[in-house]
Amino acid sequence: MARLAYDDSAFVYFAISMGCFFLLPFSYWYVAALWRALKGTGKQGGETVEKGKLRAQNGQAGIEALKTRGFAIRTVAIVVGWLTMAFLVSQTGSQTVIQQFDPWQVLGVTKDSTKDDIKRAYRRGTFKYHPDRVRNKTADEQAVAAMMLQKVQDANNILTNKEAYEAYLATGSPDGSKQMEVSIGLPEWLMRKENHNLVLVIYLIVLVVIVPVAVGSWYSNSKLYADKMILNDTYRIYIYLLGDKALPLRSFPEVLALSAEYRQMPARGPADQECLEKLRKSMMADDRMPKKPYQKVAQLRYMERWPSCDRANVLIHAYLNRRTAELTPGLQADLDFVLVRSKVLIGAMNEAVQVKRNLRLIRDIANFEQHMTQALYFHDSSLQQLPHFGLVEATHATMGKGAFKNITDFLAALDKEESPQKGMINMTESECKDVYAAAKELPRVELEVTIGVVSQANPDGSLEFEEQGCEGDIMTALCELHRKHVPEGCAHAFPVRAPFLPYDKTEEWTVLFTKKNESQLLAHTVLKGTDRTLRGKIQFPSKGFLKPNQYQAFDFYLVSNAYLDVDIKTTAKAKVLPEGTIKPAPLHDEDLNLDNEPTLFEEAFGKLDESDDSDFKDSDDEDDATEAPGADDGIAASDDDDDFEKVSKPEEPKKTK
Known about the structure:
The protein has helices at residues 8-38, 49-65, 69-90, 103-107, 115-128, 139-160, 162-171, 196-222, 232-242, 252-257, 270-285, 295-300, 302-305, 307-320, 329-354, 359-374, 391-397, 407-415, 429-441, 589-592, 600-605, 619-624, 639-648, and strands at 3-6, 181-184, 445-452, 454-457, 463-465, 469-470, 474-483, 509-515, 523-527, 533-541, 552-560, 568-574, 576-577. The protein is α+β, with helices and mostly antiparallel strands. The strands form five sheets. Strands 9-8-11-12 form a four-stranded antiparallel sheet, with helices on one face. Strands 3-7-10 form a three-stranded antiparallel sheet, with no helix packed on it. The protein has a two-stranded parallel ribbon with strand order 1-2. It is found in: Endoplasmic reticulum membrane.
């Protein structure tokens, strides 16, 4: 039978293990954040000048982030946690893990005591714990006395009985049986009677107060969020503002800045506010920021109600104009928060307008994401995605003879092994190398679309189509993106080149599907991966989309999530037969080879060779035979017939003299 008891040492070890479970990862995140903030800002090997400047700015913002209240709270929590762990570790050696039965200790004698000493000790113990002596005491004291009396009797039996003594030495148990020690990993003071009321009060507080409050708080907070932990208020703002067909592209930063997540940014001091207002006036004067809020935003006074959203609006415009070097460390920390959250918020903007299927609005959101990724305002040239290309260089490259319209022209000239020096004025040799290296990383893609009825799907993702579909069949549009700048058979991670973005981004492409020259989106698919060729498919019913025996054209827009002026539009056509048309069933290769296989008769007797005198000669061959002269009834005579006459006609007898 197992003995159950509370064990202080087990509780200490349990507390240490649970503390490590939470404290170790928390400490790792703390040290990692501290290292990123304190890391040096010197240029690293293989790093461009542009990337080094950005890393220096992020480093300064990180040092400023160490002065925040949140970082101080995390520091105090880390210190208190590790001090508590040190105290618990110091208590591990002071606890007795297993307490064995000691008969000499129970009787109060030593191992050198005589039998008479043992008898006297036994009499004292039985007299002390006899039931008659504790008759008038409490039930707990009577139970303790009964337990101690049993121990005294067991100890006397062990020390006076040779067999019991040998069994005790072998098992460590007074009755000679090996008992299982079972303990609870809780402190022993929970068993004390004077602590029972305190334990009950703590249990009631936890069960009745703390647990309901925690569950209610979690439930009330969960109602504020939708998918991907985005606030429901954010979706409401997006649906209200993005539903306006007249919303211009330059107002999209305002829509993003009004996200409910940005209302949580801490207040800033007078120096930060002065820097913010100076930037606002400068950008408005240069026509790099709208002078007035959008009509709906102004009517409801959103920016006045949420000053932190107004700050986010100015910070986003400063980022798009690449003027982040003018920000104070506190504003730089706010901008990093805005940009990191924008990663999922722009996706939420796209989800909010998917229901309306407005092609123009969806493409505008994709274009806005490209500008946010490359830190370019809406007036800027796509050539400024290249390092060291500012407004002057981009303007020079797009004017005069040999001008480039956009980044696509520049990449095409580079692929033709031409040296596109136009626009690269006043650049050093090192800066030119940076331009060429960055240009080689930018994508050159083409989109190939095939529409039809799928007959077979291959393991590599490609599809085989039937020769012709019928009305009522499910049509499939196979979209294949080919990365022309990647060697055949080469796999690559394809990280996005975005030196101003504070987080890493992976290259993705979206294919938008619509009828030709129409503005309603029918479907879309996302292409992403590390292969040179990416495939995606869009399925739609032929009935209602295609008219029998008439070609229907569809437009496919390939949109990047990161780069400007690399989007592609292609058109594909499809035609179906009227419903109920019997399509010829394709013959399998094995069926086609059956004509070449020998029959059962040929396998048994061999293949017969045809000859001129064969009985199985074709009647057509007989018709081709020449007609014999003098034949009756139009029957042609053959050489075989002549031979037959020669054999069947008897010879005339020779005359003798």
